Amino acid sequence: MNKYLTCLIGTTAILLSLPSHAYYDDEDSYYENRYENRYENRHENRQYRWICDPYTNVCHKVYYSPYSHNWHSHVRKKVVPEPKFVFKEPPAKIKDSNIINVNLSHGTWAAYDSQGELVNSGRVSGGRSYCSDINKKCKTATGTFKVYEKRGAGCKSKIFPVGKGGAPMPYCMFFHQGFAMHGSNAVPNYNASHGCVRMKAEDAKWLHQNFVNVGTTRVNVTYENTLPKEQDKKLLSQTEVKTKTK
């Protein structure tokens, strides 16, 4: 018993004679530097991408970590809405004839007769920049096309909602592959569709019954953002001031 007690007292004396925290300070600084470097490298090497909901306009920043080998959502969220339209009234007369001009930066459609004179016009909403449910860009095809098919009030989508289909597209008028102009109850002040050109149901009905002829009527689609003239800018600014004061 005395031998064990003597050994314990000796060991305690040796430990007390060492400089305070000498070993542990070195160990702590070693691990601290190690994890700091690892944390910095982790942030330098990791990749990220935005995953957006096309209906709420809410985007999640999703990271890929080389240490976890998996994508994971970051706690922060960022709202990335589509740009709102800069409304500009279509011209009353153009050089082209028998054509529907669709401008997806101004959010307008305009129908011109055989003399190039404006017959009717209205608001539209086209394909947004990115659709997360199909995981790709979904802007409307641009260029000049001819309407190759049109259907009545019972027209429905075969694809959307994804995996189900059946979304109403009354008075659809197909002009390129699966792209169509059609009536909709949701025509916001920005591009929100999967690629089709949405318009009010009454506008689609009018075009369908009074203007569009399959095989001959042309549709010109553009995202061109034509800036208004100086006079139009002044009128626009005056309108904005009146709106704010109301």
Low-confidence stretches: 19-44, 74-79, 228-236, 238-246
The radius of gyration is 32 Å
The CATH H-level homologous superfamily of the largest domain: L,D-transpeptidase catalytic domain-like
CATH architecture of the largest domain: Beta Barrel
Query: Could you tell me the strand content as a percent range?
Result: 25-35%
**Number of continuous helical runs:** 4
Question: What letter string, H or E per element, gives the SSE order?
Answer: HHEEEEEEEEEEEHEH
Which whole number gives the mean pLDDT?
76
Largest sheet: 9 strands, mixed
CATH topology-level name of the largest domain: L,D-transpeptidase catalytic domain-like
Number of strands: 12
Shape: elongated
The first-level CATH class name of the largest domain:
Mainly Beta
Global structural class:
alpha+beta
Helix content: 25-40%
In spatial order, strands of the major sheet run 7-12-4-5-6-11-10-9-8
Number of domains: 2
Could you please describe the fold and organization of this structure?
- This protein is of the alpha+beta class.
- Helix content is about 25%, strand content about 25%.
- The protein is built from four helices and twelve strands.
- It is elongated.
- The N and C termini lie far apart (about 95 Å).
- Pathway: Cell wall biogenesis; peptidoglycan biosynthesis.
- It comes from Candidatus Berkiella aquae.
At a glance:
With 246 residues, this protein is of the alpha+beta class.
